[in-house]
Fold this sequence. Notes:
- This protein has helices at 10-16, 63-81; strands at 28-33, 37-43, 90-102, 111-122, 125-134, 137-150.
- The protein is of the alpha+beta class.
- It has a single domain (10-150), classed as Hotdog Thioesterase (Thiol Ester Dehydrase, Chain A).
Amino acid sequence: MSDKQPLIDIQGILEQLPHRYPFVLVDRVLELEPNQRILAQKNVSYNEPYFPGHFPIHPVMPGVLIMEALAQAAGILSFNSMEKTPGSNTVYYFVGIDNCRFKKPVVPGDVLMLDVSVQKVSRGIWKYHAQALVDGKVVALADLMCTAREV
């Protein structure tokens, strides 16, 4: 028997992340293996609120938002691994990033695949290797650190 969980749609994502429009950057979860890996999807639309200013003539998804999308996928992975959902007093903080690289611009119409793997968990700090892909090609990658805290 596989420990993979079923697909998580946007309703399930909203139950697992404290983020709300316009800052929810994960549309659905395609694969999830607790304590191991998540594969999530972000559909990049021209209607995103940042495109008119970044950049009007050649819209490009800001790299910091690609990293945030990866961190949100990591949050879903962590909460599922802990078998918890965030309460109204729980925040999942993005606390560190190393080895961040951007390989190719992400533009409207792209389907951004968010592939995040747990590397280590120690003292409540989760460390991940994360990569964002479009059409099977890596467009960004980084090692992320996140933690859940009561506020």
